[in-house]
Write a structure and sequence with these properties.
Distance between the termini: 34 Å
Radius of gyration: 15 Å
Strand content: over 45%
Structural class: mainly beta
Number of helices: 2
Largest sheet: 6 strands, mixed
Strand order of the largest sheet: 8-1-2-11-10-9
Number of strands: 11
Length: 155
């Protein structure tokens, strides 16, 4: 389902939402439930080999090559005080496009795409998160793309 929706986005087809709703991709990093607005996601890839980047900061797992682009892959587990990163069958690379640059997130599992009513967003200024959403009796932190990119970009 997610791949089909992302394919539609890449083809510039419209993803239908109600007036007061925002589409979010919901995902897990360790035990943390996170989300990012669909408009900020370039693509979700199945896990592909990550090339080590000697001398990179600890939060950078390495880089991947995708469609001729070099994309750094960030591991948020240290930031979230979660356990060590392990690859599983559910592991995905969530690629975010920001200011004509791409940066990837190592994601343990993509949980789905969900349209969330704007009224459910509770503002937060917690480090790299801008809000929280309570959905389906679970709390998801909403990634602030500006803060995330400025903190984890590789110059």
């Amino acid at each position: 389902m997610i791949k089909e929706l992302l394919d539609k986005k890449l083809k510039r087809e419209i993803i239908v939402t109600k007036k007061d709703e925002i589409p979010f991709i919901l995902f897990k990093v360790g035990n943390a439930l996170l989300s990012v607005e669909m408009k900020d996601v370039f693509i979700v890839l199945e896990y592909k080999d990550i090339v080590d980047l000697p001398g990179a900061p600890p939060h950078i797992l390495g880089i991947i090559y995708y469609q001729g682009e070099v994309i750094p892959i960030v591991d948020l587990k240290g930031e979230l005080k979660e356990s060590t990163t392990f690859r599983t069958d559910n592991t995905r690379l969530l690629i975010i496009k920001y200011n004509n640059e791409q940066i990837g997130l190592f994601v343990d599992e993509v949980l789905g795409l969900q349209n969330i009513n704007k009224n459910l967003l509770k503002e937060s200024d917690e480090d790299i998160f801008r809000a929280q959403i309570k959905f389906d009796n679970k709390n998801y932190k909403v990634l602030d793309i500006d803060k995330f990119y400025n903190k984890f970009k590789v110059s």
